[in-house]
Design goal:
2 copies of one chain form a homodimer. By secondary structure, chain A is mainly alpha-helical. Chains A, B: This is Phosphate-specific transport system accessory protein PhoU. Chains A, B: It comes from Liquorilactobacillus oeni DSM 19972.
């Protein structure tokens, strides 16, 4: 029995390591997506898109590992919760990667269209903030830091406020200058992607609460589905 | 053993029923979200937003059921795959609901802004198509219809093409008429939500393949992360 326990713990550790690796890849993806947007760097944007495949494969691999671990070790209570949480949280992490890709697609398509420096500065700020949130939530997950999870979910409100502000400013600029419509509408999309990443981060915070307390909670529900 | 098998099958049936109910609620949500958008019906939009809570609760409930069923019956092979797939696919279904809510938020915020009838017609068409896709994929899931799943994933390309078209038309109109910027930028958002729902439908198609063949596949990868 002790041996089985040890082997299960080994397998679970492997899953945690894979999850952490996936998290680091996604953090890197969003970091680079923001950088590509700020620097108008299409090559970097393309690079993020190509690498997304590896993130998707991580999610698939975690799924296979989940099936194997459950079938072999038949975990219960906290162990089972641990395995299932990795499985579910990996969907949220993977979708953060998808949104980094969407940002990169926007960066590539904007081409030489008339840029609006002041709005790009705002988006860069929002991007840095989002990137930090992703980093912090991964750290909180690894360290099972409940208090930190609550705090990060609260931080998401900043992104909601930023999106509203950026949307408003884009509309004002687009109304005044037709030449800015192309870039302005992409700015709104990019800000929407960043705000949505905040929602996925909040989901991961909820998984941390679930792991620690065994309760399914909804953190920050009013901020979700913002525009 | 036979008795345990029977009880497991009962529990699994309950999960399938709950999943199907969740699917129906989400189908209704997207149907109503499209209708609210087309009819400029803010009360209906509000109603969809309020009801989303019940969809989220379904997902939480399925999660609890998964933990209980695995801990109690320790399923393996096809049974385990069945349980895990419900758990993962329910995330995709829940997110379709979130996007219906986002559409409704857009409908509410557009207020009396200058509408563009020809683009609204296009979005309505896209909305109807998306709604059908959701209905078809739920049906394919329940009936384990592999061929249908492949077909539905292919259908997603229509939404990608529609989004590109609508985005382009919105930009043209916004450039020509500053008064249309407000509604135009919301149209782009709404079309983006519909396109993203298509991606979630494709994910569910992938789960159907996984259930039937035990293989994790990526259907229609090039269409994902479109803008």
């Amino acid at each position: 029995m002790k041996k089985l326990r040890k082997t299960f713990n080994n397998e679970l550790s492997k899953m945690h390591v894979r999850f952490a690796e996936m998290g680091m890849m996604v953090h890197e993806a969003i970091f680079r997506a923001v950088k590509a947007f700020v620097d108008h760097d299409k090559a970097l944007a393309h690079n993020v898109i190509v690498r997304d495949q590896a993130i998707n494969e991580c999610e698939n691999e975690l799924e296979k590992m989940t099936l194997e671990v459950i079938a072999l070790y038949q975990p219960v209570t906290a162990d089972l919760r641990d395995v299932i949480t990795i499985l579910k949280a990996s969907s949220d992490i993977e979708r953060i990667g998808d949104h980094a890709v969407s940002m990169c697609n926007a960066t590539i398509r904007m081409k030489g269209s008339q840029r609006i420096a002041e709005i790009e500065v705002e988006i860069a700020k929002m991007g840095d903030y989002t990137c930090s949130m992703v980093e912090h939530v991964l750290d909180a997950y690894v360290n099972r830091n409940l208090e930190r999870a609550y705090q990060i979910a609260k931080d998401d409100r900043f992104l909601d406020a930023e999106l509203r502000k950026i949307r408003q400013r884009c509309m004002t600029v687009m109304q005044a200058a037709p030449a800015s419509v192309f870039s302005g509408s992409y700015y709104i999309s990019v800000a929407t992607y960043l705000e949505r990443i905040g929602d996925y981060v909040t989901n991961v915070c909820e998984w941390i609460v679930f792991l620690q307390l065994g309760e399914i909670v909804e953190l920050n529900p009013s901020s979700k589905n913002n525009l």
